[in-house]
Amino acid sequence: MSSVLTDPVSSGAAPAQQAAVDTYAHVSGSRRWLLLGSLTTVFFILLALYCAVLSVLLPNQIQAIDPANKARDLAIVFAVTSIFSTLTTPIAGALSDRTRSRWGRRTPWIAVGAVVGALCLFAASQMRQLWSITFFWVGATVALNSMQAALTTIVADRFPEKERGTVSGFVGAGMTAGGTIGIVVAGYMASTLTLAYLLFAVAIAVGCVAFVLLNPEPRYHGAAPSSMQLGAFFKSFWISPRQHPDFAWAFCGRFAIYMGYQGIVTYLLYILQDYIGLSLDNANRMIATLSTVTFIALVIAGLGSGLLSDAIGRRKPLVFLSSLIMGIALTVPLVLDTVPGMLWYAALMGIGYGAFMSVDMALMTQVLPKSLSGEGSESTGKDLGILTSAVNVPQILSPVWCAWLLNLSGNNYQWLFISAMVFVFAGSFFVLPIKSVR
């Protein structure tokens, strides 16, 4: 269809016409399974990259520059880059909503973002100063978050709501498994940082280009976007909690849970060194071991929770229970500050985080303002981008918050677990007031 067709949302089209627009890209048959498999694969690679860089490669690279100030320097890099990623995700999502091309709305953002992100990531590996590492990691973060905003929207664009729990389960399992495998690989390759960075850069570029080639996106059937006015554009990012309370509760719950989770992930290498008492080499190998334990637990929990969510038609109880399990996992190292204690932490966190990730994505697509109002999908990318910022903002605040706690407590890492536990337990209760999702 031509992009000059009148938008049925604004013209008062009949319900049948509106349904045709809303479901223009829904897939079925073998195309559905190809899309699901390749989407899971790309998220696997993306999370492998993120977790490898954030948990292993960057901490090792920064420690080599200035061992005495490693916690402070890591917090600076994460805070600066996360500011850009937080701004990028909703803006890129909104711009992808407005994109009209022969390849669809999301494809250009996925392909270009992945290639540019890969180039910046490899460039960061060659840097030997904090400012230059930060500069290129910012470039990689902006590009990859632009890609991720479009990629996340594929779930809402191309799968009907009744299938999103299963889709979310597969994608969530891929994400959490990818994060685990990424840490395992990075842990064993920490002594060859350049090669490790190159491996993940090539993987994300090839994976995303293959994704868009295997899953060609149809041209969008909606009306061409109106001319963009910056004031109205930025004003559209405000979603009133009074008018859309479920969206606000979902945002707050996600934010609190990731505030807790991100703090431990960010400082895991230093926790194993300074709290558990391992050497740098042993700490890198232990990260790989912990991730292997987490991998087994999260794959089982992730796939099982997504399928169970669709079978029983409920999201909230599973999100709530998985968050509680994450909170319990964080209490273990407080009691057992040993390698066995960290292994128990890894197993329980894998169960909780795997179940949370698998169901949370499905819940997010059902609390979008447009979904609740019955309107079209003109702002799906923007709205999901705002919810994604509930993950990105903790990447700004959590490292700074944890660095402050460590400075205040004389590098007592127990306070990181206490803080994380409080955030995660609080976040588990924010899902309960949501009324539009069972």
TrEMBL record:
Main subcellular localisation: membrane
Cellular compartments annotated: Membrane
Domain Major facilitator superfamily (MFS) profile: 36-438
InterPro entries cross-referenced by the UniProt entry: MFS, MFS_dom, MFS_trans_sf, Sugar_transporter_CS
Keyword Transmembrane on entry: yes
One Pfam family, short name: MFS_1
Top-level taxonomic group: Bacteria
Membrane topology: Multi-pass membrane protein
Signal peptide: none
Protein name: MFS transporter
